[in-house]
Design a protein that fits this description.
β7 and β8 form a beta hairpin. This protein is an alpha+beta fold. The chain folds into 3 domains: 98 residues, Beta-Lactamase, CATH 3.30.450; 108 residues, Beta-Lactamase, CATH 3.30.450.20; 70 residues, lambda repressor-like DNA-binding domains (434 Repressor (Amino-terminal Domain), Orthogonal Bundle), CATH 1.10.260.
């Protein structure tokens, strides 16, 4: 626990806080200067910054780094309350600090893993998703967007209402074999799109093990495939006119396409005017959003780019 008086700039620390930061209250006294010497240079706040952030209500919860006298770096989280005098003026801050090194390490690791997953998806194409050890979806947002189903419907392994009735047995058997063998799963199945059209996906799923060797999660990639069950991976050089044609087939407004693709409306306008003026990652987002709604970009026998809206697979 700690307090900071704005008028006197006096600082008090509890015995627990002294212990956390590796200091002996019998040999040193809490002060603003001592606090500043302990906080990592990139995380330090001046008195003026503290007052300014406190007045704006931005100090209620803050995570920062402390370098102890023994050189150990700690992530700590401070939860703060403001104290006012009878005139309404803010005169003091008080709060509690606890170590957050473990949670910060986990957050950093999750950020790193997310970046790796995004990179793999960019390299391999397809849609990335995760399930629990029994095969129930953990990431439902992407499939909700595609199918229009609720989260409860998507995790219902008994009904499998998004999977074509003729493919449900194949789906269940593939998962049963993979779970029993704790090995890679691969199958194709038709999935019901939000507009009532079935589209075929090829899915490849691998087990993720914990430190004890137990399956913690399954990670999968799914690719939209054509009627001959070949991956749509042939490179297609798309021009602005192809995106305009695809949007017309989907009967979407520019703003609707922007919302579905998670890009700005101005990006869609620039894309349809000059595709080279748009960042490649934004072009890919729009392309994927269109493909998830049934657009297929391909080549004609003459080698020209074709744009079509698929029907039931």
């Amino acid at each position: 626990m700690w307090t900071y008086d704005f008028n006197s700039r006096d600082v008090t620390w509890s015995a627990g806080l002294y212990k956390l930061i590796g200091l002996d209250p019998a040999t040193v006294s809490a002060s603003v200067e001592l606090y500043e010497s302990l906080v990592h240079p990139e995380d330090r706040l001046t008195h003026h910054q503290i007052v300014e952030k406190a007045a704006a209500g931005e100090m209620s919860k803050r995570r920062f780094r402390i370098i102890r006298p023994d050189g150990r770096l700690l992530w700590v989280e401070s939860r703060t309350q403001r104290v006012f005098d009878r005139s309404g003026a803010m005169v003091m801050l008080c709060g509690v600090i606890q170590e957050a090194s473990a949670t910060e390490k986990l957050r950093s690791e999750n950020t790193r893993l997310d970046a790796i997953n995004k990179s793999l998806v960019e390299i391999a194409g397809g849609e990335f998703w995760r399930t629990d050890p029994d095969g129930r979806l953990l990431d439902v947002s992407g499939w909700q967007h595609f199918t229009g189903q609720s989260a409860d419907q998507l995790v219902d392994l008994d009904r499998l209402s998004a999977v074509h009735p003729d493919d449900r047995d194949t789906y269940r058997k593939a998962w049963a074999r993979g779970i029993a063998a704790r090995s890679k799963i691969e199958f194709s199945a038709r999935v019901l799109r939000h507009d009532g059209v079935y589209q075929k996906f090829l899915s490849r799923i691998v087990p993720i093990f914990d430190a004890r060797g137990n399956v913690k999660e399954w990670h999968g990639l799914s690719w939209l495939i054509d009627d001959t069950s070949t991956l749509e991976t042939a490179p297609v050089s798309l021009k602005s006119g192809h995106f305009r044609a695809a949007r017309a087939l989907l009967n979407l407004s520019g703003q609707e396409l922007a919302d579905l693709s998670d890009v700005s409306f101005s990006t869609v306008r620039r894309l349809e005017a000059d595709v080279t003026s748009v960042k490649p990652e934004s072009v890919e987002r729009v392309k994927k959003a269109m493909q998830l709604r049934g657009i297929r970009f391909g080549h004609s026998a003459e080698g020209l780019v074709t744009v079509s809206l698929t029907s039931a697979g």
